Amino acid sequence: MASRLFRERNIRILVGITAGGVFLYNAVPVAFPGHTIGRIYRSYAGGKEGPLSAKCREDFEEVCADLGIKNINKYHPFPSFGTAVHKAGLSWLPNGVYLGIPDTFTMRSAEEVIANMKLASHAVDWQTEDGKALAHSVVMSKNARKFCIAKELCEMKASQVLMPTIVAPAFIAASYAGGQVMKFAVPMLLPGLTSFSVALIGFTAYCMISGWVYTMVENNADKTVAKLSPDYAKGGVEFYEKTLRKHQNLRRIMGKKGEKMYSYYGNENQGALNFRPALTDRLRTVGEIKQQSQESS
Predict the structure, then answer these.
(1) HSE (CB half, 13 Å, CA atoms) of 245?
(2) CA-to-CA distance for 140 and 109, rounded, in angstroms?
(3) Is the pLDDT of residue 285 over 90?
(4) What is the DSSP pairing of strand 86-89 with strand 75-80?
(5) Do residues 210 and 167 lie in contact, with contact meaning Cβ atoms separated by under 8 Å?
(6) DSSP-derived pairing of the beta strands 75-80 and 97-102
(7) Do residues 261 and 208 lie in contact, with contact meaning Cβ atoms separated by under 8 Å?
(8) Which residues make Cβ contacts (< 8 Å) with residue 289, sequence separation at least 6?
(9) 3-class SS letters over the chain
(10) What's the CA gap between 210 and 170, in Å, rounded?
């Protein structure tokens, strides 16, 4: 009896530590974005922090004006390596929002991409058809760049970005509590099997709810930005088309690894419990808005 109580006590302590650890893991980037993504993804030149280009700064300020963001001092854009935008934080928190704008946004031609871009995990022969196509897919017009920045800022304005921070620890605690109840409600089952089953159900439910929330946030951001003006809608279509082409080119260039990362159509291959919207679906949504704007003009 005493050993069982000791075991239960240790399990409760472990659950508490796990829930607290998950909370901190999700909360730290939101509360201290400058010390997390602001350092992890920042691009450096000669061992020093690279400054944000004047053109990227101009794009960022124009987007903030178009979105009606007044407290622009709470947003901190910085140059980041790679081709994707990185973001963390909330505008109403003391440290605000940090937005990593990729260095590729400063590149205006495929030749500039070939001269400056490198893939960390794979060598690229830029003289091949796939290499040249990859270089062209990275270059974005001003409308596409502004759409990308705007949708990321819209996503950061949604309070749902806090969901992983709050809900994940709650699901851990709820799964443990559910397992304890099941032990008494269904005593014939093995305790380990009962706990595992409840934990699996809880994890699956969390993934489904997270996917639903992120899908809602991302789709709302796409629609909000695409409806700002025909130029934003046009930029959105270009952004998703080129992103899909970039993934298709990477899939061919990287071989087996690329096939694991990207589908034939350029979508990111997601796990069985990842319910985020596919890029082709997002392209379709923005494309419909673009067509509607053209028909109404």
Answers:
(1) 18
(2) 9
(3) yes
(4) unpaired
(5) yes
(6) parallel
(7) no
(8) 223, 226, 227, 233, 236
(9) CHHHHHHHHHHHHHHHHHHHHHHHHHHHHHHCHHHCHHHHCECEECCEECCCCHHHHHHHHHHHHHHCCCCHHHEEEEEECCCCCEEEECCCCCCCEEEEEEHHHHCCCHHHHHHHCCCCCCCCCCCCHHHHHHHHHHCCCHHHHHHHHHHHHHHHHCHHHHHHHHHHHHHHHHHHHHHHHHHHHCCCCCHHHHHHHHHHHHHHHHHHHHHHHHHHHHHHHHHHHHCCCHHHHHHHHHHHHHHHHHHHHHHHHCCHHHHHHECCCCCECCCCCCCCCCHHHHHHHHHHHHHHHHHHC
(10) 13
Note the residue count of the chain: 297
Q: For the whole model, what pTM was predicted?
A: 0.85
Residues 112-131: what's their mean pLDDT? 81
Burial of 48 (0-12, 13-18, 19+ CB in 10 A): exposed
What is the percent of the chain with per-residue pLDDT over 70, rounded to a whole number? 79
For 113-146, give the secondary structure using H, E and C.
HHHHCCCCCCCCCCCCHHHHHHHHHHCCCHHHHH
Taking the C-alpha atoms of residue 292 and residue 226, their distance in angstroms, rounded to an integer, is 11
Q: Any bridge partners for residue 234, and if so which?
A: none
Supply the pLDDT for residue 297.
67
Please enumerate in sequence order all residues whose Cβ is within 8 A of that of 124, keeping only pairs 6 or more positions apart, or say none: 118, 131, 134, 253
What span, in angstroms and rounded, lies between the C-alpha atoms of 45 and 53? 13
